[in-house]
């Protein structure tokens, strides 16, 4: 009896085996998760999209961030050879990670410090990542001539958010310059909620402040410390104030724009019998929206040191500037239904901007000779049709006579 029960159980397992085998086979035969297809690029001219260029001048991030130990520098002690855009570059001991503020699909850069006197022959790899997962990589052999004169890059079928540059030697110094990456794709504008709205700029919020700190210590006595925090008396009010420690801001609004200048300082000093430490901040954030499609003109600069100005549409960056020695003019189109934010800040430097918004006027397209001829013929045709439909004086007289005879 027991043997019959055992046999039945075995037969039951074998009956279920095909049902269990099918999902297992499907799992084994299923394709692995697809990686992005990366097309190698050997020069900037091979890219197919509008590009953003970061030359690392004056500490500008320009849509790219990097973490320690990577640093933007012009130190000749680490590299004193030719550069594609003198005189600053990015260097890093070991793998170099670059993170983009917005997803991109095309990345490339010049690299160097590949000297046969420093290293044996090696390869350079540029690997793409999205959310921490590798999308693939491209590799090229270093020409071992020390100069920053070789380009490595790719075009990806998928979006990525960071890349890692690796030299295939145990201990090395990465030197890169002129990093190119495809401009992020701006989201399409939303439908105009009310096309009949009158043009206006609506300010949603503003947050402005200037802080200051100063401490003066006598060697034979105590310390005198001052702390300042200044904010506008009311939203969108004119704001012109200075604090200890070198803090300063002058900002204000009108109906279709706003402007501002901010400055800060930081440092220390040891004199005869005393020491002094000071620092300050000057920050501005303004949110606004428009009621109709509008044209924005933003004039920035000159900014110095670590001053930063950024314009964002929702979460999409439209403009950023860090440490420009000259004026920068940026023009853009704004859309109703979206929130725009301009920020300006510095811990050591000076920022300056003027932002103006105007109603967007749709211009009629200019007509070429063919267009003018077509318009002329259309006007003649329209006039002829109107004349054909208009009763002549004789026809009107006959109609009146017919009505009189019927009476």
Question: How would you describe the overall organization of this protein?
Answer:
The protein has helices at residues 2-29, 369-389, 393-406, and strands spanning 38-41, 51-54, 64-65, 71-73, 89-93, 96-112, 123-130, 133-141, 150-167, 173-182, 201-218, 223-230, 239-242, 248-254, 257-263, 266-271, 274-290, 294-300, 304-305, 308-313, 316-322, 328-334, 340-346, 349-359. It is α+β, with helices and mostly antiparallel strands and 407 residues long. It folds into two domains: 38-182, Jelly Rolls (Sandwich), CATH 2.60.120.260; 201-359, no CATH class. Strands 1, 2, 3, 4, 5, 6, 7, 8, 9 and 10 form a ten-stranded antiparallel beta sheet that branches. Strands 11, 12, 16, 17, 20, 21 and 23 form a seven-stranded antiparallel beta sheet that branches.
């Amino acid at each position: 009896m027991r043997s019959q029960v055992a046999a039945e159980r075995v037969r039951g397992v074998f009956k279920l085996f095909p049902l269990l085998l099918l999902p297992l086979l499907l799992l084994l035969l299923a394709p692995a998760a697809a990686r992005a297809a990366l097309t190698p690029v050997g020069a900037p001219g091979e890219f197919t999209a509008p590009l953003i260029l970061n030359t690392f001048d004056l500490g500008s991030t320009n849509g790219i961030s990097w973490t320690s130990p990577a640093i933007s520098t012009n130190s000749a002690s680490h590299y004193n050879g030719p550069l594609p855009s003198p005189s600053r570059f990015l260097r890093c001991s070991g793998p170099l990670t670059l993170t983009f503020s917005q997803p991109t699909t095309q990345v490339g850069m010049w690299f160097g410090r590949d000297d046969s006197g420093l290293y044996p022959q090696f390869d350079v790899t540029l690997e793409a990542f999205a959310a921490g997962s590798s999308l693939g990589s491209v590799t090229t052999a270093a020409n071992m001539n020390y100069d920053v004169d070789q380009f490595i890059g790719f075009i990806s079928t998928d979006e990525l958010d960071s890349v890692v540059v690796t030299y295939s030697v145990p201990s090395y110094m990465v030197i890169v310059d002129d990093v190119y990456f495809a401009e992020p794709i701006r989201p399409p504008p939303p439908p105009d909620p009310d096309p009949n709205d009158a043009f206006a700029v609506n300010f949603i919020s503003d947050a402005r402040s200037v802080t200051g700190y100063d401490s003066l210590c006598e060697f034979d006595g105590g310390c005198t410390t001052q702390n300042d925090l200044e904010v506008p008396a009311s939203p969108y009010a004119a704001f012109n104030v200075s604090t200890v420690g070198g803090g300063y801001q002058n900002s204000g609004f009108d109906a279709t724009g706003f402007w501002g200048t901010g400055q800060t300082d930081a440092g220390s000093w040891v004199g005869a019998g005393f020491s002094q430490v000071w620092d300050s901040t000057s920050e501005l954030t303004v949110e606004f929206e428009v009621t109709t499609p509008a044209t924005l003109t933003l004039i920035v600069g000159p900014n110095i040191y670590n001053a930063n100005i950024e314009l964002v549409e929702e979460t999409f960056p439209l403009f950023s500037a860090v440490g420009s020695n000259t004026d920068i003019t940026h023009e853009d189109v704004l859309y109703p239904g979206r929130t725009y934010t301009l920020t300006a800040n510095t811990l050591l430097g000076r920022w300056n901007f003027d932002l103006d918004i105007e109603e967007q006027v749709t211009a009629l397209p200019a007509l070429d000779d063919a267009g003018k001829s077509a318009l002329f013929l259309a006007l003649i045709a329209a006039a002829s049709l109107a004349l054909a439909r208009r009763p002549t004086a004789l026809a009107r007289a006959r109609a009146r006579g017919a009505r009189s005879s019927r009476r």
